[in-house]
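Much of what follows relies on a compact textual record of a protein's fold. With that in mind, consider the following protein and its fold in C-alpha cell form.
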Amino acid sequence: MSRKTKRQLERDEQIYQLTTLVAGDFSLQEVLDKLAEAAVKIVGVKACSIRLLDEQTNDLKMRSTYGLSEQYRNKGPVTKDDAVVKAAFAGEAVVLDDMRVDDRVKYKEATITEGLVSQLTVAMRFRNKPIGVLRLYSPKPKCFDEDDIQLARAVASQCAVAITNAKLYAQRIEGARMAEQVRLAAHIQRRMIPEKAPWVKGLDIAATYIPCFEVGGDFYDFLQIGRSCVAVAIADVIGKGVPAALMMSLFRGAVRAYSDGTSSKDAVWGIISKLNKMMCQECRDGEFVTLFYAIIDIKDMTITYCNCGHEPTMLIRDGQTMGLEKGGIVLGVEAGAEYEIETRPLKDGDCLLFYSDGLIDATNFDGQLWGRESLLQTAKKFTNDSAEQMLGNILGYRRRFVGLARQVDDTSIIVVKIGQAKTWNNI
C-alpha cells in the first residue's frame, strides 16, 4: 500500500470518527474541543480555531482552539464584516499563503509572535446558514492545497451538524430541567388546594380542581369560622401556566391572612377591600383576579357573599336556580372600587354551586360551549344526591359533551348542600 493511499485511509477513518460526535450526547463545549483537535490531526497542521457567530452582536466568538496560546486566543474581536469571514460566509475557502504580509490579517503582530504563517478559513453552515468559521493554521507558507481545502470543508460540515446537535441536546437538557421544575411547582400548587372539604355539621361539601396545564391560576379554599360558619373562596387569576400559578400562590396567602374569623358584612367588605388594594399593587396591565367570597352560617342559615367579577355562585332551591351576583369589578384594576355585600337566607335542601369559567367554557371538537345552561340543567337532576355524587355527575356530563377535545382553561367546582345529611340519597 502506498504512503499516499495509507494517509488517505487514515484521513477517511478520522473523518468517519467525527460522525460519532454528531450522533453523541455531548455538551457543546465538549464537541467543540474534540472537533478542533480532530481537524488538526486530520489535515496535519499546527493549530485550529472554531468561532461561532453571535447573531445578537454579529461577532464571531472564539469558542474552542487546539494548538494556540492563550495570548493568541485573546488577541481581539473578529466580526462578520471581517474580509476573510465575509468571503468564507459567501462560500469561498479562503487561503492566506503568508499572514505576515497579507493586508486582510488584522492582528499581524500576534500572528508573528505565535509563529503562524499560512491560514485556511472555511465556513461552518447548517441548512445553508453560516453559524461560524473553522480556521486551520500552519507555520509554513503556502501550506494549503486543494486536497486540504476539501478536507477542511468536510470537517467543517461535520462540525456544523455536531454543533447544532449539541445545541439541541443542551436545549433538551434545559427543557427537561424546566419540566421538572414545573412538575415540582405543580406538586406544591396541589398542596395549596384543600385535599378535602372541612366538616361542618349541617353541611355537605365536595370540591375539585382540574388544571388544563400542570399548573394554573384557579384557586379555592375553605376557612372554618367557629363551629357553625365556613368561609368559601373561589378565584381565577387571569392567565395560564407558571405566571398565573405564582400569582395564585400570592393571592391565596393574602386571602388567608386577611380573613379575620368574623362573619359580618363589614368583615367581608374589609377583606375584599384589602385584597383589591393589594392586587392593584401587584397586578400589571392586563392582569387581574376574579373572586367569589362567601361565609355560610349554618346556625343563622345565611350566606354572606361578595362577587368580584367571578362566575356567580348558583343557589338551587326547589328546582329553581338563582345567581348570587352582588359585588363589584374584578380585583386588581381600581384601588378605590366599591363592593356590595349581600346576605341571603338559606333553607334545608338548598344547594350552592361555586365554579370557575373553565367549567362552562369547555368546548367539544365542533367548538361548541358546554355553557351555563347545560351546567344548571345537569345540576338540577342531582339535587337529591350527596355533594360528592352531584359533583361527579356534573363532571361526567361535561366529559361526555366535550369528548377528547383539549381544554384551554382550568376547572374548579365546589358543591355545598344545606341541611342534615340524612336528607340526601345514598349517604
User: Anything to note?
Assistant: The two ends are 92 Å apart (CA to CA). Confidence is low (pLDDT under 50) at residues 421-427. DSSP finds eleven helices and 16 strands in the chain.
